[in-house]
Design brief:
Elements lengths: L1 H26 L2 H18 L9 H25 L2 H6 L10 H13 L3 H12 L4 H8 L3 H24 L6 H11 L10
Helix pairs in contact: 1-2, 1-3, 2-3, 6-7, 6-8, 7-8, 8-9
Length: 193
Amino acid sequence: MAGDLAAFEQVVRQHQQSVWRFLRRFLGDAVAAEDVTQETFLRVHRRLPSYRFRSSFTAWVFQIARNAGIDELRARARRDRLPPALATASGGTPTTTGRTGEARVEIDAALATLPVDLREALLLVEVLGLRYTEAASVLSVPVGTVKSRMFRARLRLAAWARAGENEGGGEDAGEAAARTGRARGRGEAGDEV
């Protein structure tokens, strides 16, 4: 077992710098590149038994690094689609107040405005990073239902954020979201699309 660990340490030493350089340029962020480099070598370690010698070992490591980098870019894109307060909870930057605790309270308040079916779809896809097909499997619903729930959850969160910006505009965020959905011909807030 000690020999396996020593051999793996040698693999890491041999490839770590070049993987990090690749990911730094691929991601455009040195800190993210460090995290994804670590993730790459965790994946390499887990998948060593599946290496089939079809390509060079170095090419195989870089394929894993590339896939980990793509996963990071997808996660970044998901965070960018979220309202600013929600991005903090899923690993983005803190709100303009700089107080992460307050941002978490805002996130909880925003999520609490969503019906359970919309909230669970949003959490699975946007926060946990599942694909629509994976979320559909978890929820035991068709993929189209997950997509419609995501759309409606985003509408409601956007309305909630606008209501918070207007502070006391007289309309509750749920009412604003429901009105927005009806105005666009999407039916009542609780209907499936």
